[in-house]
Amino acid sequence: MTMIHECDSCGYEGRVIEVLDSCLCESCFEQQRHLIEAQPCPECGKEIDTDIGLCQRCANDPEIMPQPDC
Ligand SMILES: [Zn+2]
Ligand SMILES: [Zn+2]
Question: 21 CA to middle of ligand 1, Å?
Fold first, then answer.
C-alpha cells in the first residue's frame, strides 16, 4: 500500500510504502525488500531459507519435521 507519509527509516516525507508496522520510501523499501520478504521461521522465529520454508537449523532438525504416526 502506497501513501503520503514520513519514511520511518530515513525521514523522507512523501510517497511511502506501508510495510508491516512501518512506512518506507521507495529507496528504503528497495534496500529492505529482502528483509521484508523473509518471513520468520514458523518453528523458532529466526530468518528462514525461503526455498524450504524453515530456517536452516530447523530444516536440519528431524525432531520438528512432520512425521508419520506409524
Ligand atoms: Zn526512506
Ligand atoms: Zn527455525
Answer: 14
What phi and psi values does residue 57 have, to the nearest 5 degrees?
-65, -50
- Give the C-alpha separation, 26 to 17, whole Å: 7
Low-confidence ranges of the chain (pLDDT < 50): none
Query: Per-residue b/e over 12-32, b at no fewer than 16 CB within 10 Å?
Result: beeebbebeeebbbeebbeeb
Give the Å distance between the CA of 19 and the centre of ligand 1.
12
Interatomic CA distance for residues 17 and 69, integer angstroms? 45
